[in-house]
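### Sample
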Amino acid sequence: MSAEQLSKLSLSDSMVTTRAGAARLRTGPPQTPQGSLTSSPISPTPSLIESTNGHVYDISAFDEDLRRRAKIGLVKDDNNIRMRFCGENDDGTKYFFHLDDDITVKLEEERVPKCSCGSVQDRKACKHIFWILGQLSSVLPKNQTIQLAEDGSSVKNTHPAEVLQMRSLRDFADHLHWVVEDEDLPETEELVDEVDNMMSCFEPTGLLPAEFKSEDTRELSDLSRMFREIRSIIVEHAIRYPAFFMQLQEKCTPEFQVQVFFEKINKRVDGVFNALDEYIEKGPTNQRSESLDVVSCAARLGCLVEKVEEYRDDSLHSDAGERRDDTEIEKLAAVAYLRILDEVTRRNYNAYADNTWGMPMPPSDPSKNNLFVCLIGSASEENGFFILDNLRDMAPHIVRHHSVDLGDIENRLRNTTLTPPAYLNALRTLIQDKRKRAASQSGGSSAKRTMQ
């Protein structure tokens, strides 16, 4: 039954239908029936009450106890009633609403609503049932008084289960920001993992999601430890209040998480190269600025490439093991890979040749003083090809977008004898293969894994 249909249900002639009329009844003097010698006692709860959402309810048929319950459920902002999640059976004849404090309200056709709170007496509604009725009737116009059944079990002679059937639970859930069980709720383990991913975006020391979720806390700062304690509180609330979890998802979208991840990666890439420059210029320092020798710099860059690849794998593979096509992740990953490869190929020289800080015994081995040789010099089919292996795993149109940058890198590699022939051939094959495949299809799949 739609809101329009509900609004057209008949009302008794004596019923007040305007808010002004309701106000007069609330403030006017009590009426004494003709022939009565004494006035009726004034009820502490008026026969018309206005709910928190602005609707006026006629509760004149209620006894004092039922009026009190109705007032708590419909009017009080501090009634501590909050929806956790709701659901329905397969045929849509039974509905359940899980509230705070492990309270469950059940609605079934042609039956009095039931609540697990234990306050339902003589088949009359409790405050939780009134709260549910108030939520369901919130779609009605506010310019007319809403009549409740004598036992508080229905709105305007319409059973709440009928209202849900005609408008659907999903419509009400969307309107009232409720969470529907099964359709919206991940398993607890998945929920916790997703909250961790979201919280990692705001971790004060820039930890990546996998690092943030690690149980190893030996290297954490005091600030990070405190943040983890806050994270535990948020996880607890997200499990207990699914609607809160849904709000977190609305604010911290997957797109936002991807952007933050690669911002952190790019910041680390810059930091690694700056640390190498710091070491070349000043040597090991005990200051706040980090310094890295060539070998340590190469290891750190290799670690960053691995972290990006792990993130791609976690993000692009579905639970069924299929490969998802997330263009945004692939674009940002390609940018990060090309930034690293471009910088490495520009550093094809002995980093310690012009040492000014008195390095005791500068290494003469190019694999220890030349970042290019350190990362690319040993490239082979067996050892793998730094960065190129990752780019070969991407769709052709992603790589083709960087054809100019790859061409510049190819020129650099071709003009030095330190480039392994296998690496140069792999780069040329990558460029040519992606061009051909991009020309033959709008999208593409990697040679190693199929894009789904």
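Residues 186-252 form one domain. This sample (SWIM-type domain-containing protein) is used throughout the tutorial notebook.
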